[in-house]
Design goal:
Layout: E1 12-19, H1 23-34, E2 37-43, E3 58-65, E4 68-75, E5 90-97, H2 101-111, E6 117-121, E7 124-130, E8 136-142, H3 144-147
Parallel strand pairs: 1-4, 5-8
Antiparallel strand pairs: 1-5, 2-3, 3-4, 6-7, 7-8
Length: about 160
């Protein structure tokens, strides 16, 4: 890569998100069938939006199957969420955790791959891109201000 930082160093899968029609039923089924265990729940979170205050009305339940995080997402009103296909349930996105988003962003720029959404939540930032079939793929890493140790803004 011509001496540039390796954007893939330290990368590992973060989680898989499934868009579901009944979040409680899915959580119960995956618990019974795959041994899925719940980690946390969130309602009306910006993680479900576009990062600019649009959309985002729904629920998530994050859990694990073995070492893999599996998230269930149920939208309250998919008809008004433009980035969610109205009648599409199944794989919603796949993401990887990276120690630094800067080399990822540089690689995306070099490849001409546009960032579809960028959302900060907690101490992390999520960069979302679309694969050739439109499936969202993302990179989860530390926020720039958290990495630098700044204390401004919500974390």
């Amino acid at each position: 890569m011509n001496g540039a930082a390796d954007p893939f160093a330290g990368m590992e899968f973060s989680h898989v998100a499934l868009l579901v029609s009944d979040i409680e039923q899915s959580a119960s089924w995956y618990s019974d069938v795959f041994g899925w265990t719940e980690l946390f729940r969130a309602e009306q979170t910006e993680m479900l939006g576009d990062g600019n205050g649009h959309g985002g009305r729904g629920r998530i339940i994050m859990g694990k199957v073995g070492l893999t995080k599996v998230e269930f997402v149920q939208m309250y009103d998919p008809a008004i969420e433009p980035w969610v296909l109205n009648d599409h349930y199944g794989l919603m996105l796949i993401s990887v955790t990276v120690p630094d988003l800067a080399p990822i962003r540089a690689n995306l720029d070099r490849l001409g791959v546009p960032v579809k959404r960028e959302v900060d939540f907690g101490g992390t930032r999520l960069l979302m891109v679309a694969d050739p079939d439109g499936i969202e793929a993302g990179f989860v890493g530390p926020r720039d201000d958290v990495t630098r140790g700044a204390t401004t803004g919500p974390t």
